[in-house]
Amino acid sequence: MGAYILRRLLLIIPTLLGIMIVNFTLTQFVPGGPIEQVLAEINGEGDVFASINGGGGDAAAAVEIQGGTSTSEYIGARGLPPEFIKELEVQFGLDKPPLEQFLHMMWNYVRFDFGESYFKSEGVLDLVWDRLPVSISLGLWATLISYLISIPLGIRKAVKDGSKFDTWTSAIIIVAYAIPSFLFAIMLVVVFAGGSYWQIFPLRGLTSANFDELSLWGKVVDYAWHITLPVLAMLISSFATLTLLTKNSFLDEIRKQYVVTARAKGLSEHRVMYGHVFRNAMLIVISGFPSLFLGVFFSGSLIIETIFSLDGIGRLGFEAVLRRDYPVIFGTMFFFGLIGLIIGILSDLMYIFVDPRIDFEKRDS
User: Fold this and answer.
1) What pLDDT shows up at residue 320?
2) 116: helix, coil or strand?
C-alpha cells in the first residue's frame, strides 16, 4: 500500500502542472487584463486603486505612487504616457513573453513563492492562508452533516422501499434537489436573517465582534450561530444527491444472492444490513466523497460566501477573476487542485478502511 500511495503522491506533480498550463493558456485568450483594470480605474470606472492604496486616495495620486509619473502628465483625453504603461507592465511582469512568464511562475511555485496580489498589496500565500479556514470550515461541516443525515436516511429508504415513508421522503428530496443553493440561501436570509421576517441569525461573518472575549462554550455557540445558515444553504443539493445514491446502492446489494443466503441462514436483519450489505454498498458512496466535497468547497462556497459576505477562498478567487489579478487566480487554482488531488488519495484510503479486501497495489500490477 505504501508504494501505491507514493505513486499517487508523485502523480500530483504532473497533474498540477497540467492544471496550471491549461489555466495559464486560457488567460491568454481572455479579453482585458490587469493593465486594462488600472486604466479603467484612472478613467473612473473601477475601484482598483482604492485596493492598491489600502482603501484611500484618488486615481491621480495612485498613478503618481505606482508609476512614479507626475499627475500633470495625465490630462483626460490625452491619455496616459506610454512610459507609465510600460512601467506597469514591468511591475506586473507582463513585459515578458507568455512562455517565460509561465516558467518564471512555476519556478517560484517550486520555491513556495506565490507572488503578491496586483491590487491588495499582500502576498498570495497570506491571502489564501487567511481565507482558507473559512472555506474549509464550510465545506467540512456541510459534507459531514450531509453524510450523517443522508446515509441513515438512504438506508432506511432502501429497507422501506415502496412504503409511504419512502414516497414522502422522496418527494422532499426531489424538491430539495430542484432548489438552487443560491436561491435557498437568499430565502434563508430573507426569512431568518432580518430580510423581511425574523432576525434570528447573523448575516455576516463566522464570528461576532467580541468573539475573543467569550468563554470557550460561548465561542462554540457563537460560531454555530453564525455558521448555521451558510451550512444549511450548502447542504440542500448535496443532501438530496447523497441520499438517493445511498438508497440505490443499498437496493442493488439487497437484491444480490449473498443477502438471500444470509437471510436463509437465519441471520438477523440488522446483521445482514450492517454486517454484509453495508460494507459493499458504501463503496460507491465513498467514491463520491471527493467530488461532493470539492463541489461544496468550490462552487458552493463561491456562491454562499458572496451571499453571506464571508471572506473565503471561493470569494477571493471570484474577485481575482473579475479584477484579472493573475497571481491570486493561479494561486487559488493551485491550492484547489492540490486539495482535490489529496482528497482523492484519502478517498482510496477510505475504500480500504471500509473493505480491507481491496488492494490497489495488486490491481495496478
Assistant:
1) 85
2) strand
pLDDT in tens, 202-247: 877 777 878 888 888 888 888 888 888 888 888 877 788 788 888 8
pLDDT at residue 76, as a whole number: 42
pTM (predicted TM-score): 0.70
Q: Cβ atoms within 10 A of the Cβ of 291, count?
A: 15
Contact assessment for residue 320 and residue 312, using Cβ atoms and an 8 Å cutoff: no
Helices (H) and strands (E) in the chain, counts: 18, 0
- The Cα–Cα gap between 337 and 17 comes to 10
Give the H/E segment covering residue 290: helix 289-294
Question: Residue 193 phi/psi, 5° resolution?
Answer: -120, 30
User: How far, in Å, CA of 91 to CA of 108, rounded?
Assistant: 16
Torsion over CA: 259, 263, 269, 270 (sign): negative
**Exposed/middle/buried for residue 323 (C-beta within 10 Å: 0-12, 13-18, 19+):** buried
Asked if 236 and 304 touch (Cβ cutoff 8 Å), the reply is no
| Mean pLDDT across the chain | 77
Whole-angstrom Cα distance, residue 119 to residue 324? 10
Residues 6+ away with beta carbon under 8 Å from 68: 87
